[in-house]
Specification:
alpha/beta; Aspartate Aminotransferase, domain 2; Aspartate Aminotransferase, domain 1; 2 domains; seven-stranded mixed β-sheet; 9 helices; binds 4'-deoxy-4'-aminopyridoxal-5'-phosphate; cytoplasm; EC 2.6.1.52
Length: 349
């Protein structure tokens, strides 16, 4: 069995893999891969998945949950289109590659994208502060967890404009107060399910209010009206996401995920900080609980360390090419014993 520290697509619980595999062969007499998305059986799955997201995140009344396609990369554009208001200006917090891409897509949607805070000066290794949102802004967009550099917001930015968040890499990893947001979006392939679906949680009161002419697929109001069935949804990804949501709810929900994720992060950061062979790459206060980035203090030990973890059945530890070093992604389904296996290897260097 391999310890999968990959940044995504991520590991899911073994039980979920087994149930998903069984449904490929038999889902009420058909394969889940061939079933019509309009069949009563699948419509029920879609409804359940949307409900289970609401249960898992304690989503208040007045929000709609959607499973669409295109990944968070299309989400950047969908967010800008749907939240564009009279000013046609969005504020962005630039915390790395994905936030930078969100800014680009804001511009592609025809908006002026104002970067109100950025940590680019230090290679995005911290979460920047901001004073005030300028006047004449339609929304504030941020990325709650920065998968590549390994930083994470520890609190929700305070603002009086509509708030959008790309939660691709930390959704379902801990409780969140959904009522603070007008739009949350996340690719499924981190903590939710297999790649293919993208989750949207949208405040109903913003639907249909955009100042832009929105192409149909990008219009969340159309998807909401069609109960997330405007076109063929990513059937298998939604099906497995629902299995995973049920599994999560049965096993203590996001509160328990939060406790486990904190314990895993404490264990690994503890080793990084106490072992002279390693150092963290981000500011301590902004460290991500999901993606732990670190490097060797002496590069001459690289060959030996790489052999040790490869021999130890660890995969996906290589840092993103833009950061270098190592990145241990520790999504919900990664067990503490896998982190312990990595820590033991680090101790043995
Ligand atoms: N935002 C974040 C925070 C991500 O981690 C990723 C993917 N790693 C993306 C956006 C892009 O997502 P996708 O590949 O689903 O388009």
């Amino acid at each position: 069995m391999k310890h999968n520290f990959g940044a995504g697509p991520c590991i899911l619980p073994q039980e979920v893999f087994k149930e998903a595999a069984a449904a490929v062969l038999d889902f009420n007499g058909l394969s889940i891969l061939e079933v019509s998305h309009r069949s009563a059986d699948f419509v029920k799955v879609m409804e359940e998945a949307r409900e289970n997201v609401k249960k898992a995140l304690n989503v208040p009344e007045g929000y709609t949950v959607l499973f669409l396609q295109g990944g968070a990369s299309l989400g950047f554009l969908i967010a800008a289109y749907n939240l564009a208001g009279e000013h046609k200006r969005g504020a962005y917090i630039n915390t790395g590659t994905w936030a930078t891409n969100a800014i680009k897509e804001g511009v592609n949607a025809g908006l002026e994208a104002v970067s109100i805070a950025s940590s680019e000066d230090k290679g995005f290794n911290y979460i920047p502060e901001f004073d005030e949102i300028p006047e004449d802004i339609d929304f504030l967009h941020y990325t709650s967890n920065n998968t590549i550099v390994g930083t994470q917001f520890k609190s929700i930015p305070e603002t009086n404009v509509p708030l959008i968040c790309d939660m691709s890499s930390d959704i379902f990893s801990q409780p969140i107060d959904v009522s603070k947001f007008d739009l949350i979006y996340a690719g499924a392939q981190k903590n939710l399910g297999p790649a293919g679906a993208t989750l949207y949680i949208v405040k109903d009161s913003i639907l249909g209010k955009s100042s832009l002419n929105i192409p149909s697929y990008l219009d969340l109001a159309i998807h909401a009206k069609k109960d997330s069935m405007f076109n063929t949804p990513p059937v298998f990804s939604v099906f497995v996401s629902n299995l995973n949501l049920k599994h999560m709810l049965k096993n203590g929900g996001v509160e328990e995920m939060g406790r486990k994720n904190k314990a895993k992060a404490d264990l690994l950061y503890g080793e990084i900080d106490s072992n002279p062979n390693f150092e963290g790459t981000t500011e301590v206060k902004d460290r991500s609980l999901m993606n732990v980035t670190f490097r060797l203090t002496d590069d001459s030990k690289k060959e030996r360390f790489d052999k040790l973890w490869n021999d130890g059945n660890i995969i996906g530890l290589k840092g993103h090419r833009s950061v270098g070093g190592y990145r241990a992604s520790m999504y919900n389904a990664l067990e503490l014993k896998s982190v312990q296996a990595l820590v033991d290897i680090m101790k043995s260097l």
